[in-house]
Amino acid sequence: MKNLKYFPFDRNQYYYGKLLTEQDFIQxxxxxxxxxxxxxxxxxxxxxxxGFQVVEVDEKSISVEAGLALDFAGREIVSDTPVIRKLxxxxxFETVMENRRGDYVYLCLEYDEQDKMPAYNAAxxxxxxxxxxxxxxxxxxxxxxxxxxxxxxxxxxxxxxxxSRTILYQDSQLTVIQKYPxxxxxxxxxxxxxxxxxxxxxxxISLNFTEELSGVFCGGRGSMEVAVEETVLQRAxxxxxxxxxxxxxxxxxxxxxxxxxxxxxxxxxxEEKKLSSEKGFSIxxxxxxxxxxxxxxxxxxxxxxxxxxxxxxxIYLSRIYLIKTEDAxxxxxxxxxxxxxxxxxxxxxxxxxxxxxxxxxxLEKQKSSxxxxxxxxxxxxxxxxxxxxxxxxxxxxxxxxxxxGGKRGQRFFSHExxxxxGLGPVHIELSLQEEDMLYxxxxxxxxxxxxxxxxxxxxxMAKGSFVIGLxxxxxxxxxxxxxxxxxxMAEQEEEGDKEKRIYILPGKLEMRVRESCYLEAVCEGMPxxxxxxxxxxxxxxxxSQDGMYTAPNMPGVYEVTAECQGAPEIKxxxxxxxxx
Length: 580
Known about the structure:
Blueprint: H1 22-43, E1 47-51, E2 54-56, E3 61-64, E4 67-70, E5 76-79, E6 83-86, H2 93-99, E7 104-119, E8 134-147, H3 158-162, E9 163-170, E10 174-181, E11 184-185, E12 189-198, E13 203-214, E14 216-217, E15 223-233, E16 238-247, E17 253-259, E18 264-268, E19 271-273, E20 279-286, H4 290-308, E21 315-324, E22 329-336, H5 346-371, E23 391-401, E24 411-413, E25 417-418, E26 427-434, E27 437-439, E28 453-460, E29 465-472, E30 480-490, E31 501-505, E32 509-512, E33 516-518, E34 520-524, E35 531-535, E36 542-543, E37 548-550, E38 556-564, E39 571-579
Parallel strand pairs: 11-20, 32-39
Antiparallel strand pairs: 1-4, 2-3, 3-6, 4-5, 7-8, 7-21, 9-10, 10-12, 12-16, 13-15, 13-17, 13-18, 14-16, 17-20, 18-19, 21-22, 23-30, 24-29, 25-29, 26-27, 26-30, 28-29, 31-34, 33-37, 35-38, 36-37, 38-39
């Protein structure tokens, strides 16, 4: 059943003595199939109803679990067994590798069917003029393919009914997206977000622009100042800012937003990016409540879309992040259902509604207790005494590349460093090395220093990592700054034995051929453990037993392994991307 049209609905009528041909039986199947597809599309939607999770198997392969989905035409896609595939064997792989638009690809699912069981046509035989073969069966299935393009339109999802997105800027390195409600009520406050996504190498990124407003205010002004301060974004990293606005008390109208190229500044490292033309969009201002507006919009547009949008578009199962070189790739991580294309069953909706009702009920109880002057009971937790507290530490060395030197006031930043102590508050101590000397504190005390700079660290408590920044106080001709760091964290009380694990720092590493870098193995639950370093084989580079890795002469992706000497089964691997 490869037709995508629902209409017209012609049903066979039967009477005694009617001559039935193959067209009558085809019409019978088409009528029932089209009615079922129309039912699926309007009453259930488009997306995954169950299963179809994508799981990373190894650095080259993924597994697509069994599942059920409904495609854009209402056709059922069913898989009863998991399927393991190498990315290189999936349709579209060569195209996305050649395009090299970013460091991730989308894995998509679409309906497919194959003819089965060739048959001999006793009535007419094979038509050698058209070389057509008749078949007894059609096997319904699906097809997987890879793409680096986002969907043209994500229909019939919760997000698509409530929000719109405008791409303000996009290239191979950065994407700037503004997300806003599809409509707002008159005199209503609402939120709008601006997101910067880094698709290139880790870099310092900042964004500043002014958006002219009409029919809406931001902080009582007719313009909105958007500022994403300088921040280091890793590959596939995002920085998001949210702003609160208020629509004017309009009976009917639109809130308009405009950005001129002259008032838009986006920086990627030292590179400045500009808009090629003016950007703008509008939000309808309505007088009705949002629930009524969503219903009205759905009932008005759903039928038009069903008739008009009969174009094939797959279901986006996952976003797969890759570490790529010219002729190789490694799967970094897998993010399932990036566009939330789910089909919600009535049972699931009822359960979610009941949970929401309970949350509202609890909030109402808390509010009534506060209004009556009753203070809700809180468990007092005595602070830990500093005396006798156990501390855990980690230390390492990082080299920050200054290029051919730097000017006064210029800033440089390290890659993201994972200290391996866990999540939470951490104290970072830094010192600058020059030959046999280590300098801590103010760099203005000792005059013989070759690099006069301020150094600081910014820790991410939610990720267990930090970034070191350096700002030159004087111009320097040095090409590198070697910084030693020490991370200190209070030991948390844990029940039971801690899991024994090894981490390699840094977690990601890109190098040039024949370049050297110090790696550190952090052992958890194994104090005093001796670590053995190794590479995956010959021509993989060289690593000494103190963790100094030297890249080979050829670009590629190479594996470095650290294992516990007393327990070889406890080990960790790091994939190093080596470029020219």
